[in-house]
Specification:
The chain is of the alpha+beta class. It contains 4 helices and 7 strands. The protein has one domain: 2-Layer Sandwich (Alpha-D-Glucose-1,6-Bisphosphate, Chain A, domain 4). Strand 4 (67-78) and strand 5 form a beta hairpin.
C-alpha cells in the first residue's frame, strides 16, 4: 500500500448548523433520504444499521431512471465526532473508506470528509471522474437540508 495521504481525497466545509443536527443528518435514515446523493437524485434508504459492524445500503435513483447503489459497513463511530465506513458505489466506485469528522465551532459545524482509495492510481482516476463536483453537490444538498430543518 502506498502512502495513505496520496490515496485520499478530502473536502472541508463549515455547515451553518449545530453539530447535533449535522450528526442526526448523517445518522438517521429520514434525514439521509432527504440529502444523500448529487442534485437531481432521489435516495431510498434500504438498510441502515448505525453501529460498529452495522451495514448500510442506499439506492439512488438517477433522473434517467437508472439506479446507483451505495453500501458499506461501519468500522468506527464516535458520537458527534467521527464516522468511518467502508463504501461501494456501484457501478462507479468500489473498495473505498469514507471518513467523516465533525467539530463544533460556536453554533456551526466544521466538517471534514475524506475518501481513502486502495491505490494512488485509483484515487487519481476517481478525482478525474468528478469526485469533487459530485460530493460538493451532495454536500450542497446537505446544507440546504440542514437550513430547512433548522428553520433558518
Amino acid at each position: 500500500m502506498s502512502n495513505k495521504d496520496n490515496r485520499t481525497l478530502t473536502l472541508e466545509r463549515t455547515f451553518d448548523a449545530p453539530i447535533k443536527l449535522v450528526w442526526e443528518a448523517w445518522t438517521q435514515p429520514e434525514h439521509i433520504a432527504a440529502w444523500w446523493g448529487p442534485k437531481g437524485m432521489k435516495t431510498e434508504v434500504v438498510e441502515h444499521n448505525f453501529e460498529v459492524g452495522g451495514k448500510w445500503k442506499y439506492v439512488m435513483l438517477m433522473p434517467d431512471g437508472n439506479e446507483f447503489i451505495g453500501e458499506g459497513e461501519y468500522s468506527e463511530i464516535e458520537e458527534l465526532k467521527k464516522i468511518i465506513t467502508s463504501a461501494n458505489f456501484r457501478p462507479m466506485t468500489v473498495g473505498v473508506e469514507l471518513q467523516v469528522f465533525l467539530e463544533e465551532i460556536n453554533d456551526k459545524t466544521k466538517f471534514v470528509f475524506k475518501v481513502v482509495h486502495e491505490t494512488e492510481a485509483y484515487c487519481r482516476q476517481q478525482e478525474e471522474m468528478g469526485f469533487y463536483n459530485g460530493w460538493a453537490s451532495t454536500f450542497d444538498r446537505l446544507q440546504d437540508h440542514l437550513t430547512t430543518v433548522a428553520g433558518n
